[in-house]
Write a structure and sequence with these properties.
Elements lengths: L4 E3 L6 E3 L7 E3 L8 E3 L1
Antiparallel strand pairs: 1-2, 3-4
Length: 38
Amino acid sequence: EIDGLECCPYCPYAVIVDNPDDKVFRCLNPECMKETCR
């Protein structure tokens, strides 16, 4: 497991989130682009 790694629940996109206070996950996959709660 990688510290801070967040995965999109709708597609395979994953990114390391530096700000633990950010409560919204923004998928940057051009085919998805959904925003979800972390």
